[in-house]
Design goal:
33 strands; single chain; 14 helices; 21% helix; alpha+beta; eight-stranded parallel beta sheet
């Protein structure tokens, strides 16, 4: 039996329809070698065999099919094939001699992910560090006190972030993003994912102060009276300038109007907008708690739960025994952080309802945002049972308001229990993208905290890791998973290429840019834009920005001294990705892996893409069995992109396929992309 010919997956050419409704019949298709097997069966249970009928053939393959009517529950299956005395099974991991329940294919009737999100080109923006265009909304020196000091406005845009950076503001704003929409459009960006932009006292804004309003420091300040703090004053009740800026409804409503107009303009430019929802915890400045007492004397704001025991928000938080009001500091903080009070959903239906209204508000008119990225989503609530129930209700609320909104969660590890069809659409793809790619190409852990020399260049390890981790996703979730090389929580990928272990406090800021390899970075970008999922560029990565992990990874976009070669490279790779349906939603198969070598294909019946990478310092000759990706036996493939150690090219070059095989010579640190179209 030709095991290399066997293939099926969850794409629309092997499962019709790919995202069925309850009660709908689904045609399931299996590919085998031509005239190679006696029979094929679909198996949904140990004693349940449905014989599949051969319905088609071509020069390489036979195609078998059967139809299954979907019920209300998930449907899992695998295949059994027989040729003479040989019986094998095929599941999501591949061909096997044994039955492996953990790798079965799975269909969840009624589960759909937004079509626009499949393969979408995303761009992540931390607003304070992207672009500054409005001087009137800058955070002022001494405007208020947070954590351990007064906030500070950084006047030098290119200055490196300090080791403790939370209270330092560079002044990036939404007006800056608005004025760069043409740049993002020219780059080929289809979706902006914003780090949090709601009212918050920090520059990262993962400590929400008011979920109902965009922070005026990012948008519009129309009333701006009051005083900043005196140098020796840490009492925010005296920060009257700050209080007016973030509590006066004129500022808050003007900021919301500005944001609604921004989203409309982004949509007019073909760019969608995803918000960051921090719903596990809020911030100590939050109006519901008001530990800083900035809302205490402001009209129309009820007393916070820190201020008064009879606060309408009392049960939004868990207070420990022994605490006393007024000003009860004995509340539960996430991981013990008193600046990040944990939200107490199980004891407050009002909190539950409020957050669901927030979730609906921002994906509905007049804001019309296109989805949510959910911060530390697995941590929400005090039990796993409640967590799953909440996210099921969150999904129902959001999808009712905006059926095309995406729900995308931050998650590390296996997310199957949330990706079962009733909760999240997908996740930030650490396990099946960022981490394996980082280890294979750099040997570095994603924080730059560890170097694993054995992982560097180990293509077989990369393949086995990816095969395993990709099976945690149903295909619709995989195709819209957020595939990042860098983000606000981890070192920038370009810095990882220098193999320096440590953080900025130990190594210093300059070290992040020393000994980097643009060649390896370009290979990573090629992989990012040819791998199943939504390739997501962390702002300024495309311009050559470097940085160790938080806060050094939050350096500003280097306007005026960008790396234009890298920008042009990203633009060309993005154009290649956007023009290819096979790269957006096609099937995936590994072709060859080895020392410093990873080769794979993305394909459908109309287009076949072959990708080959050499991550090492010597030439590799490889023969690829491209017939496995439905490439004709004797044809010409077109090389549409190649990266070299010092350059790259998009000049088309013809490559000959003979007998279904493609011979390639891969120079050191090279990635090549080839295409065949029917």
């Amino acid at each position: 039996m030709n095991r290399e010919a066997i293939f099926s997956d969850g794409t629309s050419e092997y499962r019709i329809p790919a995202e069925p409704e309850i009660g709908q019949y689904v045609k399931i298709i299996l590919r085998t070698g031509k005239d190679d097997i006696e029979y094929a069966c679909l198996r949904a249970a140990e004693d349940d065999r449905v014989v599949m009928l051969r319905f088609g053939t071509d020069e390489h393959f036979d195609y078998y099919q059967t139809s299954v009517r979907m019920g209300e529950e998930s449907f899992s299956y695998y295949f059994e094939l027989k040729s003479g005395p040989e019986i094998v099974y095929y599941d999501r991991f591949g061909v096997t001699d044994d039955i492996r329940p953990q790798y079965r294919f799975n269909i969840c009737p009624g589960f759909k992910t937004p079509d626009w999100a499949k393969g979408a080109v995303m761009y992540q923006i931390l607003v304070d560090r992207f672009c500054k265009k409005d001087d009137t909304n800058d955070v002022l020196d001494d405007e208020y006190f947070y954590i351990s000091g007064h906030v500070h406005h950084v006047s030098e845009w290119d200055r490196y972030p300090r080791e403790f950076d939370v209270t330092e503001f560079y002044g990036g704003d939404l007006e800056g993003v608005r004025q760069k929409l043409n740049y993002l459009k020219s780059l080929g960006i289809e979706v902006i994912y914003f780090n949090p932009i709601f009212v918050s006292p920090s520059n990262h804004k993962y400590d929400t102060q008011d979920y109902d309003y965009i922070d005026p420091h990012y948008a519009r300040i129309v009333r701006d009276n009051g005083d900043v703090l005196a140098p020796d004053d840490n009492n925010n009740r005296n920060a009257t300038r700050f209080i007016e800026r973030v509590t006066h409804k004129d500022n808050l409503e003007a900021s919301n109007r500005f944001f609604a107009d921004f989203v409309a303009e982004a949509h007019a430019n073909g760019i969608k907008v995803i918000l960051d929802g921090v719903f596990n915890h809020c911030g100590s400045f939050n109006k519901w708690l008001d530990r800083e007492r900035i809302y205490e004397d402001v009209p129309d704001y009820p007393k916070g739960a820190y201020v008064a025991e009879d606060s309408p928000y009392h049960d939004f938080f868990h207070f420990y025994e022994g605490g006393h009001w007024p000003y009860n500091n004995s509340y539960d903080g996430w991981w013990g952080h008193d600046t990040l009070p944990k939200l107490n959903y199980e004891e407050s239906d009002k909190l539950h309802d409020y957050i669901l209204k927030v979730a609906v508000k921002w994906v509905s008119p007049p804001y019309n945002c296109d989805g949510w990225r959910l911060d530390v989503a697995a941590d929400l609530g005090h039990s796993e049972e409640y967590n799953h129930r909440f996210w099921s209700e969150f999904r129902k609320a959001v999808k009712t308001a905006n059926p095309d909104a995406v729900i995308l969660a931050e998650h590390y590890g296996d997310a199957r229990s949330w990706l079962s069809g009733s909760q999240w659409d997908t996740i930030m793809n650490y396990d099946a993208f960022m981490e394996p790619v980082s280890f294979f190409l750099t040997g570095m852990e994603k924080h730059s905290d560890r170097y694993e020399g054995d992982a560097l260049g180990d293509g077989k390890r990369f393949e086995m890791t990816m095969r395993h981790c990709m099976t945690a996703f149903m295909t619709p979730s995989l195709h819209c998973s957020m595939n990042e090389l860098s983000n606000h929580d981890h070192s920038r990928f370009l810095t990882r290429t220098n193999h320096k272990v440590g953080r900025v406090g130990k190594l210093g800021s300059e070290a992040a840019g020393e000994g980097i390899s643009k060649a390896i970075f370009k290979e990573a970008v090629v992989m990012q834009f040819t791998w199943p999922g939504a390739p997501t560029v962390y702002y300024a990565d495309e311009a050559g920005q470097v940085g160790f992990t938080d806060p050094d990874n939050r350096r500003t976009y280097p306007w005026g001294h960008e790396d234009f070669d890298l920008i042009d490279f990203h633009r060309d790779v993005i154009f290649m990705h956007r023009k290819s349906e096979a790269l957006r939603k096609g099937s995936f198969i590994f072709l060859e892996t080895g020392r410093n070598l990873v080769c794979y294909a993305r394909f459908n019946s109309e287009e076949q893409i072959v990708v080959a990478l050499n991550s090492g310092g010597y030439d590799i000759d490889v023969t690829l069995q491209v017939w496995r990706a439905s490439v004709p036996s004797n044809c010409t493939m077109e090389q549409i992109l190649v990266t070299y150690e010092m350059a790259y090219s998009i000049m088309p070059v013809k490559r000959t396929v003979e007998g279904g095989r493609l011979n390639l010579n891969l120079a050191p640190y090279t990635a090549v992309v080839l295409r065949h179209r029917a």
